[in-house]
């Protein structure tokens, strides 16, 4: 299998709002290898979420080429994109995006419905994913019966349940206190150790420093792309 997993070639994204055009991405070319741990940083409006959405096949570029796992996804149909998303990618959002009336188990099992698994297998996989984030004793709780950090861990369990090789997290610690944020970084560290490719967006320098490469965007362009020689070491007690 090729080491290169994500390759954007001169991609651009233009949003049209009535007569106005917003050039969210002007020209972005980046390569990410399997197993990398990357942080996207940059000012508000610089295009981080837009780029994440394209990388995650939630959106398509207006121009340029996006190659994921050696496949050009730029021209794929909605259905083909959905299939790739389901198979390859786990998303974690800042706002968790959990269903309020569903239990943890049901929330985590949701992607497996789209993937076509039967109920028994869904529950089994969802339970295992919740256990892997240290929430094996909360399967029957609803989101409002959990702390913010626990909710984010449910969201991470849901992102992991399909066994994706790429984990995309847009501000995964944005709504969390410092201690809980570090717990989530402990979890990401483990996922990275297991060989997953992780890309996260963050505004916070100390969070970005857990990653091994920092890409800074500005005005829809890559401003800097640097290796982080000394990533923050995760305290073993921090890992879940
Ligand atoms: N759906 C949309 N329609 C129109 N314009 C959009 C849309 N999504 C984003 N934009 C615009 O594109 C630009 C980039 O937005 P994006 O969400 O990628 O920024 P960001 O770097 O993630 O910012 P933040 O740090 O505030 O989350 C912004 O100017 C934004 O207003
Ligand atoms: Mg954003």
Q: How would you describe this structure to a colleague?
A:
The protein is built from seven helices and ten strands. The protein starts with a strand and ends in a 13-residue tail after the last strand. 32% of the residues lie in helices and 29% in strands. Strands 6-7-8-3-9-10 form a six-stranded mixed beta sheet, sandwiched between helices. A hairpin with a 2-residue loop joins strand 4 (63-68) and strand 5 (71-72). The protein has a single domain (4-227), classed as Rossmann fold, CATH 3.40.50. Bound molecules: adenosine-5'-triphosphate and magnesium ion. Residues 15, 17, 22, 24, 42, 44-50 line the site of adenosine-5'-triphosphate (ATP).
């Amino acid at each position: 299998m090729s080491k290169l997993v994500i390759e954007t070639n001169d991609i651009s994204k233009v949003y049209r709002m009535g007569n106005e055009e917003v050039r969210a991405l002007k020209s972005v070319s980046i390569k990410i290898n399997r197993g990398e741990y990357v942080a996207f940083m940059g000012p508000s409006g610089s295009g981080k979420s837009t780029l994440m959405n394209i990388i995650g096949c939630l959106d398509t570029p207006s121009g340029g080429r996006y190659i994921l796992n050696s496949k050009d996804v730029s021209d794929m149909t909605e259905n083909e994109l959905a299939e790739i998303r389901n198979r390859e990618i786990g998303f974690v959002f800042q706002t968790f995006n959990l269903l309020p009336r569903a239990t943890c188990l049901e929330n985590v099992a949701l992607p497996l419905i789209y993937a076509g698994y039967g109920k028994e297998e869904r529950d089994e996989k969802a339970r295992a994913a919740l256990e892997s984030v240290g929430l094996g004793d909360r399967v029957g709780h609803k989101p409002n019966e959990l702390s913010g950090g626990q909710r984010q861990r449910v969201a991470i369990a849901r992102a992991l349940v399909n066994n994706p090789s790429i984990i995309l997290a847009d501000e995964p610690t944005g709504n969390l206190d410092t201690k809980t944020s570090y717990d989530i970084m402990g979890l990401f560290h483990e996922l990275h150790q297991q060989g997953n490719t992780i890309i996260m967006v963050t505004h916070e320098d100390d969070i970005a420093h857990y990653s091994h490469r920092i890409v800074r965007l500005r005005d829809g362009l890559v401003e800097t792309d640097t290796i982080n020689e000394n990533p923050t070491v995760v305290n073993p007690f921090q890992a879940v």
